[in-house]
Specification:
The structure holds 2 protein chains of 2 kinds. Chain A is mainly alpha-helical. Chain A is built from 3 helices and no strands. In chain B, helix 1 packs antiparallel against helix 2, helix 1 runs parallel beside helix 4 and helix 2 packs parallel to helix 5. Chain B starts with a helix and ends with a helix. The chains are: A mainly alpha, B mainly alpha. Chains A and B meet through helix 2 and helix 3 of A and helix 3, helix 5, helix 7 and helix 8 of B.
């Protein structure tokens, strides 16, 4: 059990790292894209817009923590 | 070779070369300071473990439905890639320390010397440090090989690009017998961050059901677009840093009202 928790924590640290908000933002962006793709509206632009916003916010957070 | 396949090979090659340089520095430090045979045994064991991870997870991943694979892998690549890109932008702007292999080598060598005397035979310290260094750096490569490879059903191509990068780095390392400080590691990390984020965007959106204008040709716009955005952000942050530094360095100039005590 302890080994499983350690492995999960390691995987979290490895993929998500020190900015969980970006991870949540990516999931929300992809969910929005999936929702929009089910309508007649083009959905491809959601990811680039989301990525730019997430990158700017992530860098701002990093700057504030300095 | 198609555009996405070329992107796959280039991304894996660069990412693997960066990680191989970092792993090589650690192995060189303990090998030179303590025991080459134990350091090489640790490296070999880590490579076997990494090979096992890729061989066991690869076929399992490729068995998933393509849309589920693309959205999950695109999402993971985006999360992972945006981390690389943020750090690369901050490094390029001078707001985060750049990776310095010479410094890492000196620190690892000092730690190896301080770890106690070693006389002959198997050296547990050299084995453990080499194993940990190669495994940790290699896991990032395995992640990139698996995500890029599985998504395009080209795990063999991704693994070949990773293998080529390791061979090149090791050959140069053996030739110079010193940490590879001249490799433009920070630039390579910047490019890898751009590639991971770009492919993550492309596959994530496709997996979520969106269609890119122009299909795969959209990558020809996405990759340069992300690169330009990252460069512009790095430039702007660098200008801001220089302005702040100049303001802190210059003596305070008082206005006439402040000087008269008003």
């Amino acid at each position: 059990m302890r080994l499983l928790v350690a492995a999960l924590r390691g995987a979290w640290e490895f993929v998500v790292g020190d900015d969980w908000r970006t991870a949540v933002g990516v999931i929300v962006t992809l969910a929005l894209t999936a929702a929009l793709a089910r309508t007649s509206i083009a959905a491809w632009w959601v990811v680039p817009v989301g990525v730019i916003a997430l990158l700017v916010l992530s860098i701002r957070r990093a700057m504030r923590l300095r | 070779m198609s555009g996405p396949e070329l992107g796959l090979a280039l991304s894996v090659l660069l990412a693997c070369a960066v990680e191989a340089v970092e792993a090589l520095t650690i192995v060189l430090a303990v090998g030179t300071t303590r025991s080459w045979s134990s350091a090489m045994a640790g490296t070999g064991t880590a490579l076997i473990v990494l090979g096992g991870v890729v061989a066991s997870l690869g076929p399992a991943l490729t068995a998933l439905p393509i849309d589920a694979l693309r959205v999950s892998i695109g999402g993971l690549l985006l999360i992972f890639g945006l981390q690389w890109l943020r750090k690369a932008i901050l490094r390029a702007a001078g707001l985060k320390a750049k990776h310095d292999e010479r410094e890492t080598y000196a620190l690892e060598s000092a730690a190896a010397r301080a770890a106690g005397a070693w006389h002959a035979g198997f050296d547990g310290y050299s084995f453990a440090i080499s194993f940990k260094g190669v495994l940790l750096e290699g896991l990032e490569v395995a992640f990139i090989v698996l995500t890029f490879g599985a998504n395009q059903h080209r795990i063999a191509l991704a693994a070949a690009a990773a293998g080529l990068a390791v061979v090149l780095v090791v050959l140069v390392g053996v030739a110079v017998r010193a940490p590879l400080a001249k490799v433009p590691e920070n630039t390579m990390k910047f490019i890898v961050g751009v590639m991971l984020s770009s492919f993550g965007m492309f596959w994530g959106a496709e997996g979520a059901g969106a269609s890119w204008p122009g299909g795969e040709a959209a990558l020809l716009v996405i990759v340069p677009g992300v690169l330009l955005l990252a460069l512009a952000m790095a430039k702007r942050l660098e200008r801001w840093r220089l302005t702040v530094q100049a303001r802190e360095a210059s003596p305070t100039i008082l206005t006439s009202e402040q000087a008269s005590g008003a």
